[in-house]
UniProtKB/TrEMBL annotation:
Species lineage: Bacteria, Bacillati, Bacillota, Bacilli, Bacillales
Primary role: An essential GTPase which binds GTP, GDP and possibly (p)ppGpp with moderate affinity, with high nucleotide exchange rates and a fairly low GTP hydrolysis rate. Plays a role in control of the cell cycle, stress response, ribosome biogenesis and in those bacteria that undergo differentiation, in morphogenesis control.
UniProt source species: Oceanobacillus oncorhynchi
InterPro entries given in the database record: G_OBG (IPR031167), GTP-bd (IPR006073), GTP-bd_Obg/CgtA (IPR014100), GTP-bd_prot_GTP1/OBG_C_sf (IPR036346), GTP1-OBG_CS (IPR006074), GTP1_OBG_dom (IPR006169), GTP1_OBG_dom_sf (IPR036726), OBG_GTPase (IPR045086)
Cell inner membrane as UniProt keyword: no
EC number: 3.6.5.-
Family recorded in the similarity comment: Belongs to the TRAFAC class OBG-HflX-like GTPase superfamily. OBG GTPase family.
Main location group: cytoplasm
GO molecular-function terms, A-Z: GTP binding; GTPase activity; magnesium ion binding
The protein's name in its UniProt record: GTPase Obg
Length: 426
């Protein structure tokens, strides 16, 4: 089964907790703090494996969670960092954050890697908090929570040549006779419901990868028919072979077919019209095809490569394949995705995210939330009084006390942070 789009939840590993410990050695008075730091949590990493050509593995496992870092140990020993959780993906995989629609990674080459979710930092042990004023601190940090996100994983096949055209114009038949691929061929529309790949050997020591893409119909750019499932895979192709039923066996005009498909390509992405396009006038063995071809050329009125072929009788295929191979030699293997007008780098100021926000629940309690304050809370070990005092100082330094007063908080009011409640004290 071919799977080219799936939603996945990823959770990087949390950092290990720091340790509160002291040296207790014979003949060593006042040994001092000896708690080690926790190890870092595991990153979630996607790595390209050219042996894969589908996202089938994600169909049955849609939750990926990295390991937690090891806790700190006594004698100032650092906890072990968790190894990255490496997930193989096929070339052409695009990873998108579902919440922000941000493209996290675009993976195209073999063994290319991208960190999808960052593991949490290990908490610091009490050794790290020692100072002349407090030489034996009784506190340590918990590990930082690992990043978690819902992502959309899409596969855009990387093929040199893409066959486009209306349903039942002979794309699958063409691929089956020029390569060893065995796509499904039948006398009804949308026989091909997933792309098929085949390696084409031209016979003169040249070869390329050809993709038979699902049939396109009018309105596909808005999702009609197979819609975006088809158009997504055209983006990676270097040359487009436009297969047209020149015999008009289904009563359609070949020129109108050509115009409608190009309109759908332009509606999806205008860049597709800049790709080299070769027209394969198929079914030339059928009655009326020569007359239709003459009318097609007259209506076209421009210089476009047109090759007369018959996928059934294999007439004209050699010339078509040579033309495609020649065109591929003129195009770079990998085109840059980002074009820069000059070498000047412009840095734009980005407003820093507020460390906290305040709302009120119906019962009158004040609710604190925000990524920074929630992370700070999770990394605080409330079993030690010094850690609690440090957390209070950090909140005061962030301006939480002042903001609560401005919102009308009074002595004894309830303040909520995640699942915990505190009393506001003047």
């Amino acid at each position: 089964m071919f799977v080219d789009q799936v939603s996945v939840y990823v959770k990087a590993g949390d950092g290990g907790n720091g340790l509160v410990a002291y040296r207790r050695e014979k003949y060593v008075p006042k040994g001092g703090p000896a708690g080690g730091d926790g190890g870092n949590g595991a990153d979630i990493v996607f790595k390209v494996d050219e042996g894969l050509n589908t996202l089938m593995d994600f169909r049955y496992n849609r939750h990926f969670k990295g390991k937690r870092g090891e806790n700190g140990m006594s004698k100032t020993q650092h906890g072990k960092n968790a190894a990255a959780y490496v997930i193989p993906v096929p070339p052409g995989t695009t990873v998108i954050d579902e919440d922000t629609e941000e493209v996290i990674a675009d993976l195209t080459t073999h063994e290319q890697e991208a960190v999808i979710a960052k593991g949490g930092r290990g908490g610091r042990g009490n050794t790290r908090f020692a100072s002349p004023r407090n030489p034996a601190p009784d506190m340590a940090e918990n590990g930082e929570p690992g990043q978690e996100r819902n992502i959309k994983v899409e596969l855009k096949l990387i093929a040199d040549v893409g066959l486009v055209g209306f349903p039942s114009v002979g794309k699958s038949t063409l691929l089956s006779v020029v390569s060893a691929a065995k796509p499904k061929v039948a006398a009804y529309h949308f026989t091909t419901i997933a792309p098929n790949l085949g390696v084409v050997d031209t016979g003169d020591q040249r070869s390329f990868v050809m993709a038979d893409l699902p049939g396109l119909i009018e309105g596909a750019s808005q999702g009609v028919g197979l819609g975006h499932q088809f158009l997504r895979h055209v983006e990676r192709t270097r040359v487009i072979v436009h297969v047209i039923d020149m015999a008009g066996t289904e009563g359609r005009d070949p020129y109108e077919d050509y115009i409608k498909i190009n309109e759908e390509l332009a509606a999806y992405d205008k860049k597709l019209l800049t790709r080299p396009q070769i027209i394969a006038a198929n079914k030339m063995d059928m009655p009326g095809s020569e007359e239709n071809l003459a009318g097609f050329k007259e209506n076209l009125g421009e210089e476009v490569l047109i090759y007369k072929i018959s996928a059934v009788t294999k007439d004209g295929l050699r010339d078509l394949l040579f033309a495609v191979a020649d065109k591929l030699e003129e195009i770079p293997k990998y085109e840059p995705e980002i074009e820069q007008a000059d070498e000047t780098v412009v840095y734009r100021y980005q407003k820093e995210e507020d460390p906290f926000h305040i709302t009120r629940d119906p019962d009158g309690a004040y609710v604190l939330y925000g990524h920074r304050i929630e992370t700070l809370f999770k990394m605080t070990d409330f079993q030690h009084d010094e850690a609690v005092q440090r957390f209070s100082r950090q909140l005061r330094g962030m301006g939480v006390d002042k903001a609560l007063r401005e919102r009308g908080a009074q002595d004894g009011d309830t303040v909520r942070l995640l699942d915990y409640e505190f009393d506001f004290i003047e």
